[in-house]
Amino acid sequence: MRLVGQGARCKVRTGTTEDTDSSPSSGEGLPSDIATHTWRALELTEQAAREQAVDVNKTLASSRARGAMLLDIEWRLGPAPDWSSAKVFVSDVGGFAPFFRQERPLDLHFGEFRWTSFSLVRQTLNGDPHLPPAATKAEAVQGLIEMALAGLGPREALFFEGISVQGATYRLITSNKALARRVVVIRLGKPFEHQYARLPQKYEQYLQQLSSKSRQSLLYSERKLTKEMNGEVEARGFKSVDDVAAFLLDGSAISRKTYQWNLLGLGLRDCPSTRARLAMAAHKGWLRSYILYCRGLPVSFMLGYQYGGCYYYTDVGFDPVYAKWSVGSVLQLKVMQDLYQQDGRPELFDFSTGYGEHKERFGSESRLEANVLLMPRTMRARWMAASFLASEWVSETVADALDRLGLKAKLKRLLRRGSASRG
Q: What is the pTM for the complete model shown?
């Protein structure tokens, strides 16, 4: 059950050297010669280039907590890598930006339902490019976008997924006048809060970061579930290659009962490709996944990984029959407890993109992010942008009207309850 949303609610907004840049980015022209920020492409079909990229990833894993796993070439390409499907750019100031080719259409939605789509090949960069603190980031990003645009094929687009709205990349894309004359920019949805939790040295210190109301509510839910199940509540961790089959067996059984599985076609699936991917993560020591059992039955799961100093919460789900006992929140609390009991406690817990009340309850900070498409300014691109914006406007107008009538939340619950019951 992948949790997604477009709410832009904020608790604590933070900026780091990875996120922000005070350099101007809205000038008239893109510099034709950026001598101090020269980018070059690594040809990953060559062994030496692959080794260089892997070395960079190892450095990032040890030095950058936020988002390093999303830049890892080996992880993103998976156990059967197609090296030609990634474009990796490096700069002479230590910049690193891997774009991954995805055949991923531009979907037009009405609410949660997709009604049509445009075929599209995306060259996707997840998060902002890595730039060292000493870099003049606006200029470095300008050079990167110039080079990435030059390599686009027909019907391809650059997709910047989950970039900080305070960062140089977003500000350049959305405010540079010269760039706007050459490309079509489509902002996919509203900016959203990406929740994180800092994990201090002791578990008790983490709990103190939460609001008093959240802390009391979570601990009460844990006690209540234990009482209702006569003490038969257990959270199991799955970390080794041998654990993969058992995790997918019980986790996918839970996922099949959720509305994400039945309504949206999402969820955790037990298939050969997923088994191979989780086995790869386990082999590298990254797999950290969990299932909550009540009276021996699987009721909630969390698929996640620990990479360097960050835990990545990737996919979660719970049996709706057990919703009144807050089994998802209880599992989240037990995962936090387990992370503190393991060697190499992560510094940061990444709740992935999309708003969720439970994320806000467990998180201690957040970052406002956005998803943006860039396409060369062709007639097709302009038609796609106009159609997308019109579809979004109609969907939001209808949603606002239902909300004013007090029907939006009821209709959403009805649809989700009906779809989940089919699992």
A: 0.84
